[in-house]
Amino acid sequence: MQQELCKNCHQVHQGNFCSHCGQKTKTVRLDSSYIKDEVKYTILHVNKGFFFTVKELFTRPGETIKEFIEGKRINHYKPLLLVFVLAGINGFLSLQLDFSSMIQQYGGQTQQNAKFMQEYSKVMHWFFAHYAFMEILALPIVSLVSWLSFKKWGYNYIENIIINCFASGQRLVFGIFSILLYIVLPKNAVMQMGGFMALITFGLTIWTYASLYKNHDSKAILLRILLFIFLLLLVGFLLIVIFSLIFVIYLHKSGKI
Questions:
Q1: Residue 169 is inside which H or E element, if any?
Q2: Contacts of 239 (CB under 8 A, 6+ apart)
Q3: Which of 172, 190, 206, 216 is the most buried (most CB within 10 A)?
């Protein structure tokens, strides 16, 4: 077989791919055929990996995550990319909601409350505009909590990040469905359904963890899930308190309240 130099790393190679950097050895001039091939590959790759992973997370979440960690990965979408893409869609759709009207229902009619709600609406808009990054930043914290809760059951911290990538992906898919409902439904129905949708989202996460650790004793699973929920709520409460204090301090210093 004829040996050639790789155009990317300049190492000698044989075959269709460079054994050093992995690039295809046959590189042709960029033209319309190249664009067609790239579009075709991208669409097929997304359909094969993305939708397959989503389907698995809503039919057999625990088994899917376990198989991925053990090495069965070729058919799946990349976990971190899955979270980033779904969170981006979530954030974009959330920005289509009328936060001002929704938030005002909780505030009074005073001028001070109106200013507060206006600033809070801006914060929510910023949050959802950067929602993909917020989800990625939350992963290490949630994964630390899950690792501490299920520490003796075999998965290390990095594996817990992957577990929570899939759990987040499942939650974000349902979140997209919920936001689409919020967009088309009347505002009063949105406020009434919010708690119910949150409960379903919470239940999906519990289902994922319960099915992942289903080979353990049921009582032990329940206790560790309760520990996970408690720690997660505790961390969430502390973060809310910290960010609320920062927000109030900002409003005072800027003279807006």
A1: helix 157-184
A2: none
A3: 172
